[in-house]
Amino acid sequence: GLGLTYKKNENFGEWYSEVVVNSEMIEYYDISGCYILRPWTMTIWEVLQTFFDAEIKKMNIKNAYFPLFVTESVLQREKDHIEGFAPEVAWVTKSGQSELEVPIAIRPTSETVMYPYFSKWIRGHRDLPLKLNQWCNVVRWEFSHPTPFIRSREFLWQEGHTAFATQAEADQEVLEILELYRKIYEEFLAIPVVKGRKSELEKFAGGYYTTSVEAFIPNTGRGIQGATSHCLGQNFAKMFQINFENDKGVKAMVWQNSWAYSTRTIGVMVMVHGDDKGLVLPPKVASVQVIVIPVPFKDANTDAIFSACSSTVQALREAGFRAEADLRDNYSPGWKYSHWEMKGVPLRIEIGPKDLANNQVRVVRRDNGAKSDIPMGNLVEKVKEILSSIQECLFNAAKQKRDACIKIVNTWDEFIAALNDKKMILAPWCDEEEVEKDVKARTKGELGAAKSLCTPFDQPRLPEGTLCFASGKPAKKWTYWGRSY
Ligand SMILES: O=C1CCCN[C@@H]1CCCn1cnc2cc(F)c(Cl)cc2c1=O
Ligand SMILES: [Mg+2]
Asked: Nearest-CA neighbor of 160 among 28, 53, 289, 26?
């Protein structure tokens, strides 16, 4: 029957799996960690892709497409950055009945695929900056429990790979891209994120520094890395001989960045906004923003009602909204209400005989259930207002909830209490890696260890003499900590 079996605040994991399936976003697949992304997901992905692709085009970043496959020798080129990842690499070892001479890896990320060609293409400073992006899938044969969108063995992402003559250009682009990721989360998905820098321990080992946008899931009290923008420094330039003759005729290595966001964004949206009726879609990314449902009455003029629904959809579409009518005659209005609530459609319009007689429609918001009657005359204006109000209310509600999960601590005991209270913890830290490793060791358990999430760019004042929460040494910065995905 209709409705969810599980409640968000009682069985979060089961609730999540049920929502992504019942909202027709995901279909489970017979290979663990692999999921079918149904149209209800793809339209959301395409809205984000359309935005991001247009933005990087403004930055003169070009799309390319590199092969899915990497030879073993090339993949091994970058020893230290893949050493920890080796178990995740998926290999092709046969074609048909015959063994391949050399096994071929499926890309888990494309540095080693791309950079030999960066080396070939970049000769002089006029070849710089080289700025490429690709929209593709990647495969990482992870073993920790798979979760649709959040942790899957194959996922869609974009990966940007850029090369510059100077560090200054690279540093600037890292932050420009990070701002686009903030927009994806805060302005499209209505999810608050923290912009910051990863610690040396948590950063991409092959890079120079990593910046990220960090989200938080109140129900599980876990942080989640939303997207990353790395400065790779000259590490990969050294390894792949990506150098150029600068304008003084001197050979110099390039400065590189790489950055990505993935379909994980969609999972965070489900987790943050979903409720016990199912998915709740922010209007900016909703596949259908307005669903129009006829409420025929036994002897009422059904044709008039249906045509009113169709003309309402028409008017909304002409105004640029993604509107549909559910005119199916084999489902009751009540069934349709539950169905489209499960799918998270932000606004429902009901048209029955009374509405027709009064030349009005009944609108119902998905986020707070508020109902109101709108005259047909200024429907488009009202719908525009209500949808932007829903977008804003979803963000504000999520921000309020996330802020309520943030705990500022100064001592280890306060830290442990906050961790057990499922908080996102802001603590003064001495910035020593050994201390960070110690925090992980001291918080190991079946829920997973606490780790540093990021050092926020927006640093609160650090009073003279403040001590590190974990080591008691002089603190150097405020850093977010927590359990994470
Ligand atoms: O995060 C990004 C942005 C887009 C391009 N890539 C970087 C770094 C990716 C790290 N990383 C992440 N996961 C990996 C898994 C693997 F199996 C191997 Cl061999 C390597 C990696 C790996 O390097
Ligand atoms: Mg990984």
From this structure: 53
Weakest mean pLDDT among 126-140, 289-303, 306-320:
289-303
Report whether 202 contacts 61 (CB < 8 A): no
| Any atom of ligand 1 within 6 Å of the Cβ of 133 | no
- What are the DSSP E strand ranges found in 191-294? 194-197, 209-217, 222-233, 243-245, 251-253, 255-262, 290-294
Residue 446 burial (C-beta neighbours within 10 Å; 0-12, 13-18, 19+):
exposed
Q: Ligand 2 center to residue 441 CA distance, Å?
A: 20
**Closest ligand relative to 87 C-alpha:** 1
**pLDDT tens profile 219-241:** 999 999 999 999 999 999 999 99
Bridge partners of 414?
Answer: none
Q: Is the CB of 207 under 6 A from ligand 1?
A: no
Is the CB of 141 inside a 6 Å radius of any atom of ligand 1?
Answer: no
Across residues 185-210, what is the average pLDDT?
Answer: 97
Q: What is the mean pLDDT of the chain?
A: 97
Peptide bond into 129 cis (omega under 30): yes
Q: What is the pLDDT of residue 151?
A: 97
Alpha carbon distance, N-terminus to C-terminus of the chain: 32
Nearest CA to ligand 1 atom 8: 204
CA dist 171 and 187 (Å) reads 24
Closest by Cα among 222, 329, 347, 354 to 286: 347
Q: From the CB of 82, is ligand 1 less than 6 Å away?
A: yes
How many angstroms is it from 205 CA to the middle of ligand 2? 12
- Which ligand is nearest to the Cα of residue 231, counting in written order? 1
CB 222 within 8 A of CB 212: no
> Using a 6 Å cutoff on CB, does residue 258 contact ligand 1?
yes
Residue type, 40: W
DSSP state of 445: S
Cβ(257) to ligand 1 under 6 A?
no
C-beta of 229 in contact with ligand 1 (< 6 A): no
Cβ 198 under 6 angstroms from ligand 1: no
Q: What share of the chain has pLDDT > 70, as a percent?
A: 99
Mode of pairing for the β-strands spanning 130-139 and 62-63: parallel
Q: Which of 109, 177, 202 most suits a substitution to test ligand 1, by most atoms within 8 Å of the C-beta? A: 109
The one-letter amino acid at 432: E
Ligand nearest to the CA of 204: 1
pLDDT digits (tens, 9 = 90+) for 401-436: 999 999 999 999 999 999 999 999 999 999 999 999
Rounded to an integer, what distance in angstroms lies between the CA atom of residue 484 and that of residue 440? 12
Instruction: Give φ, ψ of 139 to 5 degrees.
Output: -125, 125
